[in-house]
Amino acid sequence: MRLLLLGGTLFLGRHLVEAAGARGHHVTLFHRGRTNPQLFPDAEHLLGDRDGGLEALGGGRWDAVIDTSGYLPRVVRAAAERMAVAAAHYTFISSISVYAEPQPGLDESAAVATIDSDHLEGVTGESYGALKALCERAVESAFPGRALLVRPGLLVGPHDPTDRFTWWVRRIARGGEVLAPGDPGAQVQLIDARDLAAWVVAMVERGEAGVFNATGPPARLTLGRALETCREVSGSDARFTWIDEAFLLERGVQPWSELPLWVPRADAAFLQVDCRRAWSAGLRFRALEQTARDTLEWDRDTPLAGRPEKPGVSFPAGMDPEREAGLLREWHARPVSGRA
Question: CA angle, corner 325, sides to 293 and 191, nearest 5?
Answer without folding.
Answer: 30
